[in-house]
Write a structure and sequence with these properties.
With about 400 residues, the chain is an alpha+beta fold. It has two domains: about 260 residues, no CATH class; about 120 residues, Conserved hypothetical protein from pyrococcus furiosus pfu- 392566-001, domain 2, CATH 3.30.1760. Helices cover about 30% and strands about 25% of the residues. The protein contains 13 helices and 21 strands. The strands form five sheets. Strands 1, 4, 5, 6, 8, 9, 10, 11 and 12 form a nine-stranded mixed beta sheet that branches. Strands 15-17-16-19-14-18 form a six-stranded antiparallel beta sheet, sandwiched between helices. A hairpin with a 2-residue loop joins strand 4 and strand 5. The protein is globular and about 65 Å long.
């Protein structure tokens, strides 16, 4: 089976994408989704967060939610708001966020290659989140949330995708958050064959975001076996690794584990250089951290001998956990309720706000995880610590969906 293949995508009718597209299902809670969808009857949130159309106390995992999602999808089809392409296509997808631009490919990716680790993982999944995605796929008979994949950049592949964008896009809009989304439908058989061959020659693809969606697709494919050929593939968007943008994923901690600020600062010097700075500290390189404590910013530099030669241990999120968070009594950041995580898109002012309010006692700004590090972890068949990556810009839900015939 090929690594990727074209498919007949389900897309907004011409001129309707602005009515339809929505943020990914997992970046909004039910209250936020309800507010975003108010007055927007065709918003894809009515499919990805269908509890917004049920009583406010409805559990998002209630069977009625999946039934409602299926009814809402059928409603968009009946109204002609969503239409399916009449042949298998690829779709070149460009995202623009400020000065950042990335151009990738919407395709169907092979479940069998995911199962045998040619499409590589770097996170654990939770059974309850997998179950939710399986129920959603089964109810809709479709995959609607794309998995974000990376490939090691190849100039000839990147140039091929860029060449397609020389034409007029089939969809071009700026979403409410200011992110520009452009889509080119690739119908030419020669271009399709060239794209398929170029990607099939690659050794591996890497899951950047969407581990639960890909795991759920694998489970659905196993359950359906040969009964549904489309179930052997899952909806994905593939970008070259050097165009992807990972923002910092910062940490805030509720208390100092019984220490005074002076005692805590003194305890850091065994593992870090500690330098007070006059302004909010954005780390400039791996192994450097900002810390906000008692109204003062500090720049922390990890001692070189504390950095192991290990793809997981040398990650900044690991260095902070193993050399500093343990001093605060935090040994399991995944489950410890004394720690919280703040996406870099919120800025360092959010760290200051949470400490100055008294909600938290100390905050740490991080240097963003690099794509090369993510791929090294995946190549080693290892797992990254929780909250290691925050990708921006986010893919749009509803721009292209994958029906399972």
């Amino acid at each position: 089976m090929p690594l990727i293949r074209p498919f007949a995508g389900l897309r907004p009718a011409r001129g309707r994408a602005g009515d339809v597209i929505a943020p990914p299902y997992d970046v909004l809670d039910s209250v936020e989704a309800r507010a975003r969808a108010r007055g927007r009857p065709w918003s894809f949130l009515h499919i990805s967060k269908a509890e917004i159309d049920l009583p406010e106390d409805t559990d998002p995992h209630d069977p009625a939610v999946y039934q409602q999602a299926a009814a809402n999808l059928q409603g968009l089809l009946d109204a002609g708001v969503l239409q399916r392409d009449d042949r298998p296509c690829y779709y070149v997808y460009r995202l623009v966020m400020g000065e950042h631009r990335q151009t990738g490919l919407v395709a169907a990716a092979s479940v069998s290659d995911y199962d045998r680790n040619r499409i590589r993982k770097h996170e654990y999944t939770r059974p309850d989140k997998e179950d939710d995605r399986v129920r959603q796929i089964e109810a809709l008979n479709a995959q609607t949330g794309p998995v974000l994949l990376a490939y090691r950049s190849r100039p000839e592949v990147d140039a091929l995708l860029e060449s397609i964008t020389a034409g007029e896009p089939d969809c071009d809009l700026v979403a409410a958050d200011g992110i520009a989304h452009s889509l080119w439908v690739v119908r030419d058989s020669g271009q399709i064959d060239a794209i398929s061959a170029a990607f099939d020659a690659m050794d591996a693809l890497y899951i950047a975001d969407g581990h639960h969606r890909s795991a759920a697709a694998s489970r659905v494919a196993a359950a359906r076996a040969a009964a549904c050929d489309d179930a052997g593939y899952f909806l994905a968007v593939l970008f070259p690794h050097n165009q992807m943008q990972i923002l910092d994923y910062n940490r805030v901690v509720r208390d100092l584990n019984g220490m005074t600020p002076e005692t805590f600062l003194a305890g850091l010097t065994g593992n870090f250089t500690v330098t007070p700075v006059a302004a909010a500290c954005h780390p400039q390189r791996p192994g450097e951290f900002g810390m906000y404590l008692g109204g003062q910013w500090y720049r922390l530099g990890i001692h070189a001998e504390r950095v192991p030669d290990d793809p997981v241990g040398r990650l900044d999120v690991s260095l902070l956990a193993d050399n500093l968070l343990v001093l605060l009594g935090i040994t399991d950041p995944r489950r410890d309720r004394r720690i919280d995580f703040v996406g870099g898109v919120r800025g360092l002012a959010e760290l200051e706000r949470r400490v100055d309010s008294g909600e938290m006692q100390v905050a740490f700004s991080m240097y963003p995880t690099r794509m090369e590090d993510l791929m090294a972890v995946a190549d080693a068949n290892r797992v990254m610590p929780p909250k290691s990556t925050w990708f921006e810009p986010k893919l749009a839900d509803g721009l292209v969906s994958h029906l399972l015939d």
